[in-house]
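Renewal narrative, Specific Aim 1. Our central claim is that a sequence can be written position by position from structural information alone. The example that follows is taken directly from our test logs and has not been curated for this report. It begins with the structure tokens describing the chain, in the order in which they were read.
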């Protein structure tokens, strides 16, 4: 029997076939690696452009228009023009419901060469970044919820020498005739451009038009307070004739007992006073020293960071219920503090009415004025908005 002889030609043919398959696989992996590298490099550039565009846009918040224009311009400067060569730039603000945040997303097509041959469509690349104007900072110093653009001057300020740290916002119009006013924050409005008649006005983050109404930064109702340290179903008058409200039951201490003062009608403070208190009324809160008393008041919030809360409806109070005609001129403010010196720490909120400060000097190292409308006619003032621990620094990325 002859021995079987294997053909070397057959073996070398098989080896060539295996080598070709291996080479094809290696080339495929190499091609895919090149494409993946190209995509990763493109995505790195895209992420940098998205982050930079978000930071640029944040400088113009809360103006949706200006923030969007800035983001689109900055993306274009970095080589990504919206609508050109398959590029899509999307700007979202408010972001996550926060008017102080903006998100920029950029989508494009990477220059891939081999992956389509293998039937893998990996050419679309996206990246996004979000930024905020605050990073542990100050919230609203003055906020007017407003009743829409038909109500002029939802915020009205007159006087001189005001320093505001924090935002000023109105869902209506704003009129400022104060001279020497510095605002370390954003001034934003919804209706007509602000009437700024005073000299030397400066807003560090601009005066910006918003496209939609802002909700209350915080919102309370009468029932949110309590238990009441003092409660009354009728007017609560706090003065010399009411020793029960004063430390040691002595009005001459000028210091109120700490606690929550609740009235289903009005609260009136008719004597110089200080203390850690929260005044809560369904009617008006009127703070004005009378009968020759010195008009000096200094209050710190006792509950919910609130110094004064009123649900009094100013609009209803100014109209005769039967005729619909305006009533004779009376003070229809929901909250009105008239003082030679008023200092406070916390929130003054009038959810349905006018909040008014008048007198010589008003200052707060940590406080906010929030009303349906807000009017300030003090000759000077310093208001620093409440510290917002949830925010981020101006132009800093949040994600």
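The sequence written for that structure reads:
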């Amino acid at each position: 029997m002859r021995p079987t002889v294997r053909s070397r030609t057959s073996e070398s043919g098989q080896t060539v076939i295996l080598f070709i398959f291996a080479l094809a696989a290696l080339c495929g992996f190499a091609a895919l690696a090149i494409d993946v590298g190209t995509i990763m490099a493109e995505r790195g550039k895209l992420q940098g452009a998205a982050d930079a565009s978000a930071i640029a846009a944040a400088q113009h918040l809360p103006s949706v228009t200006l923030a969007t224009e800035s983001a689109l311009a900055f993306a274009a400067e970095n080589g990504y023009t919206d609508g050109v060569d398959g590029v899509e730039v999307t700007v979202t603000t408010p972001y996550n419901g926060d008017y102080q945040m903006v998100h920029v997303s950029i989508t494009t097509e990477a220059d891939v060469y081999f992956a389509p041959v293998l039937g893998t469509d990996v050419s679309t690349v996206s990246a996004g970044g979000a930024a905020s104007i605050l990073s542990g900072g100050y919230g609203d110093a003055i906020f007017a919820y407003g009743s829409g653009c038909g109500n002029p001057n939802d915020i009205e300020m007159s006087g001189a020498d005001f320093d505001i740290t924090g935002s000023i916002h109105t869902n209506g119009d704003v009129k400022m005739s104060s001279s020497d006013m510095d605002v370390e924050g954003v001034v934003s409005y919804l209706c007509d451009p602000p009437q700024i008649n005073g000299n030397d006005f400066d807003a560090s983050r601009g005066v910006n038009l918003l496209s939609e109404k802002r909700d209350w930064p915080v919102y309370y109702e009468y029932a949110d307070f309590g238990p009441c340290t003092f409660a009354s179903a009728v007017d609560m008058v706090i003065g010399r004739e009411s020793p029960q409200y004063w430390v040691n039951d002595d009005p001459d201490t000028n210091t109120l007992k700490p606690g929550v003062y609740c009235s289903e009608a009005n609260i009136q403070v008719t004597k110089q006073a200080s203390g850690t208190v929260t005044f809560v009324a369904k009617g008006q809160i009127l703070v004005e020293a009378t009968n020759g008393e010195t008009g000096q008041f200094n209050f710190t919030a006792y509950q919910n960071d609130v110094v004064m809360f009123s649900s009094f409806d100013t609009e209803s109070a100014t109209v005769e219920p039967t005729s619909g005609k305006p009533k004779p001129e009376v003070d229809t403010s929901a909250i009105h503090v008239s003082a030679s010196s008023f200092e406070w720490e916390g929130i003054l909120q009038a959810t349905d009415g006018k909040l008014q400060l008048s007198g010589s000097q008003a200052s707060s190292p940590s406080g906010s004025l929030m009303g349906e409308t807000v009017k300030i006619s003090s000759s000077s003032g310093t208001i620093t908005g409440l510290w917002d621990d949830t925010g981020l620094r101006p132009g800093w990325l949040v994600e």
